[in-house]
Structure formats: C-alpha cells, structure tokens
Amino acid sequence: MEKLKLSDYFSEIYELNEYPRFKVFIDGKWVKTKDTFDLISSIDESKIAEVGAVSKEDLDLAVNSADANKHKIRDMSAIDRLELINQVRKEIENHREEIVNVLMRESGKAYDSANGEINATIERLRLSMEDSRKIMGEYIPGDWSSDTTRKMALVIREPLGVVLGISPFNYPVYTSMAKILPALLSGNSVIIKPPSSDPLALLMCAEIFRKIGLPAGTLQVITGSGSVAGDYLIENNRINMISFTGSTTVGKHISEVAGLKKIHLELGGKGTAIILEDADLDLAAKECVKGSFELAGQRCDAISRVLVPEQIADKFYKKIEEHLNDYKFGNPLDGNKINMGPVINKKAAERIDLMVKDAVKKGAKCAAGGKFNNSYYEPTLLEDVPLTAEIANEETFGPVITVIKVKDVDEAIKIANESKYGLDSAVFTNDFYNGWRIMKALQVGNVTLNGAPSHGTAYFPFGGVKDSGAGKEGVGYSIEEMTNIKTIIFNLGAKNLGKQYSGQFKD
Ligand code: NAP
Ligand code: MG
C-alpha cells in the first residue's frame, strides 16, 4: 500500500521518514517518543506507519499535566466548553474524507464502515447540547422530614478530576470521542489510550482539538501497548475515573487493580437473536445477516448467535441464504462497493477459523464461507451449531452467522440467559405481547424488537450486565458516570428562615 501522507493541517502530528512516524499528544504538544511500534494494515499486511510507544516518563508527564491543568476546563464556562466542542465538530466535518481515508487503512474497514464511524462521531458531538442538560442538579426542600426542617439542599454535579479513557480497535475514533466529549463537557481533563492497532485517526482528532484552542493539558492522547501503558495508568492514584471499552478479560483486570477509582466498563458480548415462529422471516434473516456481518462481525453489539425453533429452521436458512450477498467482501481499497473488509489482523482471522472448525467438528454444517486468506475471513454461515461448540458461547468477533436450533422459545430464553455475557440481544416476532415477555426475561443491558442491535450514536443508553460490564454509555448517561454528586446543605434556621416543625400531628 502507498505510504500514508497527511495534508499540511496535520503536519505536526508526525514526521515523514522512511515511514510516517507519529507522535503522542502530551501537555498540549506533539511529543516524539523514544520508541515506536509498527502499524500493519490488515488490508495487505503492509507496514503503513510507526506509532509512538510511550515510556513511563511520558506517562508521568501526561498524568502530571492532566492533573495540573484540570482546573482550566473546570473553570471554563459551560457555554464556552459547548461552543468549543461545536467548533471541533465542524472541523472534523471539514477533514472528514481525510480522516475516513486514514481510518480505512489502519483498521481495514470498508469505506461505508469507516465513514459511518466518523458520521456517528460527528453526530455524537452534535448531541453535546443534549448531554449538557444532564449536568444539572436539584433543589430539595428539607421540611418534608422532621430531621431537616429549616434546611434546604442543592444537589449539584461536579467533575471528577482526571478521566482515563481506554478504547478498543473496532471503533477507535467513536469510542474515544464518546469518552473525551462527556469528560470535557462536564469539566474533567482526559487522558486517552486508543487501541494500538488503529490509533491514527484519533490522533488527527486530537490535533483538531489543539487547533481549535482546547486549553493545553486538558486532553492527552498517548499510544503504546495496553499491557504496559494501560496497566501503568490504571494503577495511578491521580486518575479519578477509568472509562474502559474493550474485552471482558482486560475489563476484569482493570476492576481488580483500579482500587477505589470510579470505573465504567463496556465489555464483550454474545448478542443473541431469538426468532419466533410467527416472525417476519424475511426481515429476521436480513437483520441477522446485517447484525452478524456489519464491520465483519467485529462489534460488541453484533448478532453473535441466532436461536431458531427447529420447526422453521429450514425456512429460515433459505431466507438467510437469500441475503448472504448483501455484503460485498473484499479489499476496501477496491472501490466503495466493497462493504466488508478484512478483520483487524491475521491472528484474529486464525482465531475465528479455530472456532468455525471446532463447530464443524462437533456437528455444525458450514453452509457458506469458512475460509480465510491472511486477515480476510469469508462471510460464513454455520447451521445447526451444537451448544457444545465454542462459537455457540464465546464472542465471535468475526463475520459468522451462527445458527442454533431450539425446541421452543422457553429453551431459547434459557440458553440466552445461561450466557456469562449480558450485553445485547434481539427478538423477532409479530406478537408484541410475547415479544415483551421475552424482552423482560432476558438478562441483558439492551434488547431490540424486530431489528439487529445497533447502538449507533448511543442516543439510547447502552451498556451491559454480567460479564459485559457495568455502567451506561450514552448521550447524557456518560455524563452521569463522569461526575460526582455533591450535596450542599443550607441551615436556614441559623437566621430564623425555613419552615418550623410543630410535631402536633405526630403518631
Ligand atoms: P482489548 O484487547 O481489551 O483492548 C481494549 C483496549 O485496552 C486497547 O486500547 C488495549 O490496548 C487496552 N489494554 C490492553 N491490555 C490492557 C491492560 N492490561 N490495561 C489497560 N489497558 C489495556 O479489546 P479489543 O480487542 O481492542 O476490542 C474488542 C473487544 O471490545 C471486544 O470484546 C468487544 O466486545 C469489546 N467492545 C465492547 C463495547 C461495548 O460498548 N460494550 C464496544 C466496543 C468493543 P492495546 O490495543 O495496546 O492492546
Ligand atoms: Mg485485543
């Protein structure tokens, strides 16, 4: 692939040597790290850039700066913060094509997916005004309790201080921005550790923040291995909150070592679609294909298994086959018609292949796909997958439709709820009341009736239960995670104000 070359607007974020060598964003400046690591594109396995690998000293500088400068964002008027974010949104729009282009190359995303991620980011920024409505409090009159007569309280939301955001490879820009935005909007400084596989488009966004005039030190973007950089930061006591999106394994590790810091965890899932006999099978098949194949299945809210009653299984398989070509699989640089590219790397393709082979060995039928070449895993359909197969229970994170036959809907609910995960799910039926019963019974954070799950811009709150995480992300909801409630009590009685308690009607 051709070497990455950015426009002059982004000239400060990298050096052009044999390969572009990217810097990190610390204390409001672009800093060259001593070490780097290679960024290999899954599109053709070629090296496209060198990325900064931060040292402990760099990390200390980032934490010091975030801590020392947090007052700059806290003391900025809220309307200024909002308008600054609005300027950032406009500037991202101005540079959209260039950002999309870089995101495609580093992540292997097809144009539609990369463009979709940047659109969602822009929309999330546009919704800042809605976010800001959650940064409000309450007035509580005290005279409803004998304990607090002649007092009143104001309950206000305050920033936590320094927020650390760690984001995953599948939506490196959107998930990072969905942390930066509510953190800044509510007056916190932020340190972001984007994924090592595809951090470049986010670095471009950081440059936009700098150029628009975000106070130096209120945003730091550091790159480097999660197990080194991430680990060092999650233990640091000057970080007040961790907002993590990524795998369950790393999420559990974070919750073990973070101590008393506030943590918000958006983790893995095993999105289950339950099809009922009365469902619109054409719609169900189309949505299951979309839910399984969108972004080559690398989505936490992907449909990762489909539970279908045995009576309608053959009819459902036929319908699925009709939609198998809804996704054009290939090299994302071969034109905009391609809407499914490779997975993130060859190792990921090999892992998916092991899961598919394990299912086939245990009796599943591979009705389509099932092969890979480097990072390109073919869109795959597995029918009659037994529950003993790993792919029936573990997160797939690849373009595989995994169909499991069940006796009836109660067995489907039981299987769904036996999962250690509880992130997303879908129910397909034309019987609203039955759908409602099932949606209430599922132990998940999110469930969609007659549609593939898609948390998009997180206009609706999103988050999992069980091993899928804790806390809610979403417009307004993330603000709640990133602020503390302070109760300010006024003793009005000190100046003979406030209502008296007579006690005359007490039992
Ligand atoms: P991952 O391997 O857990 O990595 C996520 C982030 O954590 C990366 O930035 C990674 O850095 C960093 N990291 C790794 N080890 C760390 C450690 N010991 N301490 C601190 N940080 C560490 O996840 P992924 O493979 O990038 O993403 C896929 C996973 O994310 C899937 O399980 C998916 O379901 C989940 N996800 C969940 C949601 C949700 O909203 N629930 C959304 C999207 C994705 P490196 O890249 O340097 O390793
Ligand atoms: Mg990983």
Give the SSE map:
Elements: E1 14-16, E2 20-22, E3 24-26, E4 29-31, E5 35-40, E6 47-53, H1 56-68, H2 70-74, H3 78-94, H4 96-107, H5 111-126, H6 128-132, E7 138-141, E8 151-159, E9 162-166, H7 172-185, E10 189-193, H8 200-212, E11 219-221, H9 226-234, E12 241-245, H10 248-257, E13 262-266, E14 272-275, H11 281-293, E15 305-309, H12 313-323, H13 346-361, E16 365-368, E17 372-373, E18 376-377, E19 380-383, E20 400-406, H14 409-418, E21 421-422, E22 425-428, H15 432-441, E23 448-449, E24 465-466, E25 469-470, H16 477-481, E26 483-491
Parallel strand pairs: 9-10, 9-12, 10-11, 12-13, 14-15, 14-22, 15-20, 19-20, 22-23
Antiparallel strand pairs: 1-2, 3-4, 5-6, 7-8, 8-26, 13-25, 16-19, 17-18, 21-24
Helix pairs in contact: 3-5, 3-8, 4-5, 4-8, 5-7, 11-12
